[in-house]
Design brief:
The protein has eleven helices and seven strands. The protein is α/β, with parallel strands linked by helices. A seven-stranded mixed sheet has the order 3-2-1-4-5-7-6, sandwiched between helices. It starts with a helix and ends with a strand.
Length: about 250
């Protein structure tokens, strides 16, 4: 496929994604079947048990077929570096979507236990198919729910999955932007972090999480040390974005 053809496909897919945002906010999916199509594409084209090839296949699908709203290859390198710095044993991800970022975490932290919270059962099924094909389904668990559901999901994590005081080494946040700060506060209230825990937040620039960014700036050097990484929105080069990487100081 030529560069021009790829650009046209991505432009159309991006507009279709924008039109699908109301559906995405309600259901977690764009509404045109691209998430399930991504899983089928991976199963048909990626080498089983090869995490790197599965990631590359998802990236190719997002560039050449339908844009996806995972962190993407360029910003994904920022997440990779944060994972290596955290060297996590226990990871909490907020927002599974198609399972892409959890795969990146699993690749960089091969002994970590990863728990990904996702409100959409359909997305959870897509992600589990992709993780199984990549051979990491035994290391990543998708918990369907939200941290804001009245305590049900938080209690499940604590009761069934070992989320105790100081146990969480890495948090990756990439779900409802309005929930970034409330969910972080829930994590802090539960005491799950320890000094040195790292929290990475995607899309702080676009769509934007201004309350979360203001909180991190207001607590710089007190509770957190934050690096703001300037980037571009996934799978394109025009729209600027921010990825925040924050170390918990305790």
């Amino acid at each position: 496929m030529s560069t021009r053809q790829r650009s046209r496909l991505l432009q159309w897919s991006t507009w279709r994604l924008a039109l699908g945002m109301p559906s995405f906010m309600r259901t977690g999916q764009i509404g045109d079947g691209r998430e399930a199509a991504c899983a089928a594409h991976v199963e048909a084209n990626a080498r089983p048990g090869d995490v790197g090839d599965v990631l590359a296949t998802i990236d190719a699908f997002a560039y050449e077929e339908s844009m996806l709203v995972n962190i993407g290859d360029a910003k994904g390198a920022l997440l990779d570096a944060a994972v290596r710095r955290a060297a996590p044993g226990l990871v909490l991800e907020l927002g599974t979507y198609c399972g892409y970022s959890a795969l990146r975490i699993a690749r960089e932290a091969p002994t970590a236990r990863i728990f990904s919270v996702e409100f959409s059962p359909a997305n959870a099924e897509v992600a589990r198919r992709i993780w199984a094909h990549a051979g990491v389904g035994d290391r990543i668990t998708c918990v369907v729910g939200t941290l804001g559901d009245g305590g049900r999901t938080v209690d499940t994590l604590a009761r069934e999955h070992g989320f105790t005081a100081g146990a969480v080494d890495l948090v990756f946040i990439d779900h409802d932007k309005r929930a970034y700060l409330p969910d972080l506060r829930t994590i802090l209230t539960r005491g799950w972090l320890h000094p040195g825990s790292i929290v990475v937040a995607d899309n702080v620039g676009i769509p934007g999480a201004p309350a979360y960014r203001a909180y991190m700036r207001g607590n710089e050097g007190l509770l957190w040390h934050t690096a703001e990484h300037r980037a571009r929105v996934e799978y394109q080069t025009l729209l600027p974005d921010l990825v925040l990487e924050s170390e918990y100081l305790g």
